[in-house]
Structures are given as structure tokens and as C-alpha cells.
TrEMBL record:
Transmembrane residue ranges: none
Cited InterPro entries: Carb-bd-like_fold
Keywords noted in UniProt: Signal
Annotated protein name in UniProt: Rhamnogalacturonan lyase domain-containing protein
Protein's UniProt keywords contain Signal: yes
Keyword Oxidoreductase found: no
Signal peptide feature range: 1-22
MF (Gene Ontology): carbohydrate binding
Length: 198
């Protein structure tokens, strides 16, 4: 994974009221030409105060991957700790998904055509899933502590869920460009803009 650091620019927050919450938006800005793969990134926040975690949004109780036509889709997905990962086989051949990632280690599970299996996600971290029968099939699943995350569009623009006042660390992870962490201190309600340059 490329660990080239991001360059980060913070724009001054606008001090407008928003029901006690701050709206955090921003953009991933490529160095050269526009890069459509920016939509594969994941932008998420972790509170520095553990008590803030209870005030952050929840998320779905499951994530889903599907073997189809020689690939495992989506290539990048997100789930939260305690949720389930469903792996479906939409092909007419058997697949055997497995992972050696510490966050969700499991051996090859034989999945018949038109059926599926489920794995409990008990730990946070990156989970890389492969197929024992087909070397070119793989996917990455980022397991997060909370539901305060978002995906940018193809231009790199993103908007996080509204956040209460407090100190956080913003994480911007991309499967090719790597990850950068940036601390922020939300002192006022209203919009806050962040730009990440690489």
C-alpha cells in the first residue's frame, strides 16, 4: 500500500447554528488530473473522547459481498464492529472465501452456487477477503468502530454525518493512495470544510 502522505488544508468553519451539531464536508484533491477512483476512498472519524462515541450514528447490522463473473464485489466496502459480513455466490461454480486478516480471520468456506455464508465482525480493522479456488478474486472490507463515515463521489467531494462538539481524528483511507489521520476540534456548531491534497 502506498504510504505517501496527504497534505491537509483546513478552511475556517462558519459559525452558524445547526441544532447543536457540526456539518463536516470536504474534498480529496488529486495532484494531477481528476481521478475517478477517489470514490473508492473511505472518510471516517474517531472521537478522542470515548464518551462521544455513544453520540455518533449507528450503521447497518450487515455488509454484503458477492462473487459474480470472476470477481468479488464491491471491491471496497465498509462495516461496523458487531455486524455481519454476508458473502453470496451469484455464479454457477463453487467459491471458497477466506481471510488471514487479524480483524476477521476465517478459513476457506465452501459456498455453493446461488447460496451464501455469513461471518461475524468482532474486531475493527482492515479485512482482505480472497477465494481459494480463484486467485484473481478479492475484496477489501474496512471494519469501523461507529457509523460516522462516508464515501466521496468521483470528484472527491464528501460529507460526513453531523457531529457533536468535541475532538476527533479524521481518517481518509484509499486502497491505492493509503491513509492519513488529521485531528480536528469542533468548537462551534455549523459547517466545517476540510481539503486533503495528495
Amino acid at each position: 500500500m502506498n504510504s505517501r502522505p496527504f497534505r491537509v488544508l483546513f478552511l475556517v468553519p462558519l459559525l452558524t447554528s445547526c441544532a447543536g451539531l457540526a456539518s463536516v464536508s470536504g474534498k480529496l484533491v488529486p495532484r494531477g488530473a481528476a481521478d475517478p477512483s477517489l470514490s473508492q476512498a473511505v472518510v471516517y472519524v474517531l472521537p478522542q473522547d470515548p464518551g462521544l462515541g455513544e453520540r455518533l450514528p449507528d450503521w447497518s447490522d450487515r455488509a454484503s459481498l458477492t462473487f459474480t463473473r470472476g470477481s468479488l464485489k464491491p471491491a471496497v466496502s465498509v462495516a461496523t464492529v458487531g455486524s455481519w459480513l454476508e458473502i453470496w455466490n451469484a455464479d454457477t461454480v463453487f467459491h471458497q472465501p477466506f481471510s488471514r486478516s487479524p480483524a476477521a480471520r476465517f478459513n476457506g468456506i465452501s459456498v455453493r452456487p446461488r447460496t451464501g455464508t455469513a461471518i461475524r465482525l468482532a474486531e475493527k480493522g482492515m479485512v482482505r477477503i480472497f477465494c481459494q479456488l480463484h486467485g484473481g478474486e478479492s475484496a477489501e472490507l474496512l471494519v469501523l468502530e461507529n457509523g460516522a463515515w462516508t464515501r466521496p463521489d468521483t470528484t472527491g467531494a464528501f460529507r460526513l454525518p453531523p457531529l457533536p462538539r468535541g475532538k476527533y481524528v479524521i481518517h481518509a483511507w484509499h486502497p491505492r493512495l493509503g491513509e492519513q489521520t488529521v485531528p480536528i476540534d469542533i468548537e462551534h456548531t455549523g459547517p466545517l470544510s476540510v481539503e486533503l491534497h495528495y
